Fold this protein.
Amino acid sequence: MIEIINLKKQFKTKGKNGGKTVKTAIDNLSLAINDGEIFGLLGPNGAGKTTLVSMLAMLMRPCGGEILYDGKNAFANETFVKSQIGVVPQHINFDQDLTVWENMELHGRLHHLPEKERHARIDELLEYVGLQERRRESIKALSGGMKRRLLIVRALIHRPKVLFLDEPTVALDPQVRRRIWDLIRTLHREGVTVVLTTHYIEEAENLCGRVAVINDGRLVKTGSPTELCRQLGSFTAEWDADGARQYRFFAQRSEAAAFAAELDSAAFIRRTNLEDVFIELTGRAIK
């Protein structure tokens, strides 16, 4: 289990007149992520998602609070924690002058894997994502979807228990995105804890057992997508009024229908989705 306790992160930034100001990126945030779950972090741009993941992945130190892995303080046990986690960044960061195999080989060496084990693991992972036949090719020759798959298995080379994915399907077409989803589900079935940030509501709804909505560095709400929708109201009536789209939420479809019947304009009734929850909780649409 990952426990986040009163976590805080501040940055010093330059003000308009050249002075220093302090920006709070994470504000006394507490959260628990269970072993073996797919957990999503949702929030508008600038909400603090990437900062939070950076601290969980030991890439950045907090200004206050604690992060515990299996009850152990993360920054007091860095070697242990780094052996337990894998990180998939949002941006492609392969060495472009190396081949697929050479990039994997470099990462395996950084984790001090013995040669025989390292080579067997690389073969296993490349086969796992259908890239074994491309192993001698340059990174530049791969498609965007292939690079994303390779990023994920590169992070798995040392068999981590926890995998952090920062926007794993950004800029991918829908077909490739679904293949990445299948890969994430397979990892979940194999017992890997997956923590992902995403701007795609459909992605969170399809993959995550639980999500946390973060805004302005604070935890707004946590729960399963179904639970959060039910709390808001399982059915949504939407209609046009005053030059804008209007929404109202109801526990039962019959209640929504009765409300719609009283309106002067036609209303559309549908099931509430996670995007509705997000906008109601943060006041901003995902961009």
In short: The two ends are 31 Å apart (CA to CA).
